[in-house]
Automatic annotation (TrEMBL):
Its EC number is 3.2.2.26. This is Futalosine hydrolase. It holds the Pfam family PNP_UDP_1. NCBIfam families: fut_nucase, PRK08236.1. HAMAP family: MqnB. Catalyzes the hydrolysis of futalosine (FL) to dehypoxanthine futalosine (DHFL) and hypoxanthine, a step in the biosynthesis of menaquinone (MK, vitamin K2). CDD domains: futalosine_nucleosidase_MqnB (cd17766). The gene is mqnB. PANTHER family: 5'-METHYLTHIOADENOSINE/S-ADENOSYLHOMOCYSTEINE NUCLEOSIDASE, FUTALOSINE HYDROLASE. Pathway: Quinol/quinone metabolism; menaquinone biosynthesis. Residues 44-208 form the Nucleoside phosphorylase domain. It catalyses: futalosine + H2O = dehypoxanthine futalosine + hypoxanthine. It comes from Streptomyces albidocamelliae. The keyword Transcription regulation does not apply. InterPro entries: FL_hydrolase_MqnB (IPR019963), Nucleoside_phosphorylase_d (IPR000845), Nucleoside_phosphorylase_sf (IPR035994).
Length: 234
């Protein structure tokens, strides 16, 4: 399994859930933290483009090494849509959606798919979402990927109107999912809520609580990932 976070503080929060010695493995363009349990952790960078590039590098290196990953998890802190995703809570993506990939028109936003290009949503395996959401006691729903953190109530309301199932937003999930899809590897996204989506108040972000929730989550998930059978969805 490859776990891709944005920043080292998130990677380290995930790493705390894995016991045993870890080693760093340097790849061209990426530094992996290989846990004793055999999972690789990657601080893939902030934003969908860098996260996609770093994740693709790690996936390619593993494939060339003859040890392809069976699962990629995008994990980190994120903004939660109240009241479904309060501070310190966890959410699991059943849809990973690029919320600002498209065109603005006089009639509103058009996703790239309506322009005839690509995709705007990746769907993690249903059976995996079910068991992870159950193990964490966390809701499953859409997690949005944005290149600009929402900072006003108006933008938050617009996103919610376009994505009524949205629980949270982050900046990397869709990029990680694009890289995983290119390699035919299933993807999952887990966000720990550090702040509400809405008017910007950086001083009110509860980063420590969210990082602690991330550690606790991965502590619960080791047996879940181990027993998950990808063929359950086929
Ligand atoms: O300052 C710190 O100590 C610190 C520790 C861990 C993470 C950070 C970040 O700033 C991570 C940036 C990362 O967080 C995601 N994020 C968090 N809230 C939102 C949001 O409201 N909207 C979108 N993204 C959010 C995002 O994925 C960033 O990459 C700082």
């Amino acid at each position: 399994m490859l776990v891709a976070t944005a920043v080292p503080a998130e990677r380290d929060a995930v790493a705390r859930a894995f016991s045993g010695p870890a080693e760093d493995v340097r790849l061209p363009g990426a530094l992996l933290r290989r846990t004793g349990a055999g999972s690789d952790l990657l601080a893939a960078g902030v934003g969908p483009a860098l996260a996609a590039a770093s994740t693709a590098g790690a996936l390619t290196a593993a494939a060339l090494d003859g040890r392809p990953y069976g699962l990629v998890v995008s994990a980190g802190i994120g903004g939660g849509f109240p009241p479904a995703a309060p501070l310190g809570s966890l959410v699991v993506a059943d849809a990973i959606t690029a919320a600002d990939l498209g065109a603005e028109t006089a009639d509103g936003f058009l996703p790239v798919t309506e322009l005839g290009f690509g995709t705007v949503t990746h769907r993690p395996p249903e059976s995996l979402v079910r068991v992870v959401s159950g193990a964490l006691g966390a809701p499953a729903g859409t997690v949005l990927t944005v290149s600009t953190v929402t900072g006003t109530a108006a933008r938050g309301a617009e996103l919610r109107a376009r994505h009524p199932r949205a629980l949270a937003e982050g900046m990397e999930g869709f990029g990680v999912a694009e890289a995983a899809a290119a390699h035919g590897v299933p993807v999952l996204e887990i966000r720990a809520v550090s702040n509400p989506v809405g008017p910007r108040d950086r001083a009110a972000w509860r980063i420590g609580d969210a990082l602690a929730a991330l550690t606790e989550a991965f502590g619960k998930l080791a047996p879940v990932f181990e027993s998950w059978n990808p063929h359950d969805d086929q």
